[in-house]
Every structure is written in structure tokens, then in C-alpha cells.
Amino acid sequence: MRPVLSVSLLVLAGALAGPAPSWAQGYPDPMTTASSPRGQYGGGFIELLMTGRDPSPRGGVVYNRPGASAYGHSARPAAGYEADPFGQSAGPSAANGRRVAALGQPLEMERPIERVIDPRFRKQEVAYDGPHRPGTIIIDTPQRFLFLVQPNGRALRYGIGVGRPGFSWAGMKTVSRKAEWPNWTPPPEMLKRRPDLPRFMPGGPENPMGARALYLGSSLYRIHGTNEPHTIGQAVSSGCIRMTNDDVQDLYERVRVGAKVLVI
Fold this sequence. Notes:
alpha+beta, nine-stranded mixed sheet, two-stranded antiparallel ribbon
């Protein structure tokens, strides 16, 4: 078998060593141009097999050389394509400062989860045909609504947060005092349950009392704003009635001291 293989390779090499095609006349063949004379084996794999020489101008093994194609030709990216995200210049903060996933795809920065209020808890005007006079506040605890009775059979309806189970209550109260950006002094009963709470907190955006407060008689309960608007529509408080800061400011301007507050 070995003599037959040698004859076949020699015949094939001779067939490839013929004159250059007419379209290539006048142009040097990079596969056969070298600093020392070489046999005409047609270049490529046959010459490498027959002579042991690499036919490329650079010499050395060129197959799979980074940055070059076979036979030493430079590999240039086609115009209009972005840089390879796996290149040496690409790092964890590549792709114009955006994070890059494991497969090189750019990722948008995470956004915090937005907590939105259910639209039905937004302030709106509704019909009212009850017996209470304009200016009266009616708090519907189960439905999480506060109504301010208006003239001509109308009422303003606001969404509220109410007392969690075990802290809800009902009854008739009056607005005994109003305050803007009230201070907060947790009552002793609350401090027993939550000894981690501060003993006093001045009014401001971080204060859980929010922008306004309407105090209900001599009780510990108040209608007030909140710095947690996502709790509107829920039962989370220790008995106070929560409103968004925008809504409690609107209510504050409409309600006088002495107004009746019915909690059901």
C-alpha cells in the first residue's frame, strides 16, 4: 500500500504544478513566492505534506492563528459591525458602560420595582345620598375609603390605609386639632410592642405621620399622611387612618376643627 500512496501523491502534485491560469498572469502568487527556491507543488496542504514547509509568507503554523485567516491572510471585520464583546478590550463594563451578560449581550440596568396605588383609591367625586351634613367625614373601614360629604348630594372619596386586624375600631369622633408636618411621639402602648421605635421624631418627609394630621378627639387616633403610600388600601396601621400626602393636604384644607368623623 505504501508505494501506491507515494505514486498517487506524486501524480497529484505534478498535475497541480502546471502553468498558472491566464487570469493570474502578471501577478505574483503569494503561495509560491519565498526567499529561497521551492518546488512547484501548488501550495497549500500538498506543499506542506510533500516538503514540510509552510507555504504562507509568514511561515509557521497559520491555521487558527488569532487575528488571521488561513495562510496568513489578515482577518478584518466587515464594516458596520460592532466590536467583539469578547475581545481583550471588553470587560465587565463594556458596551458603552452597560453591563454585559455571559454571552456578550448588553443588559439594561435593573430598575427598582415600582409600587403603585390601585386607581380606585385615587381621589374622586362620587354621589352621596346619606343623612350626614356637608363637612362630615365618613370612614368606611372595610372598603378602605374616606368620604368628605359635599353639598348637593356629592362627596369626595379618598383611598385610605386602616388598622390591621386587632387594631380596627368604630365610632363617632370630632377633629380636635390640625397640624402641618407633625412631630411623632409614639404612645407608651406602641413602645411596648415596638421598643425599637424612636421616642420622638420631628416632622418631615421621613416622619411616618406624613405632611398633615387631623387629631380625633382625645384618642390616640389620627387621620394623617404617610411616607409609605404603597400601603394605601391595606390594613397595616395601629388604628390610625393613613392617606397619601397629596390627599391629606387636600382634606386638611377642606375640613375645619370640630368636624364630625364617623368611623364604620
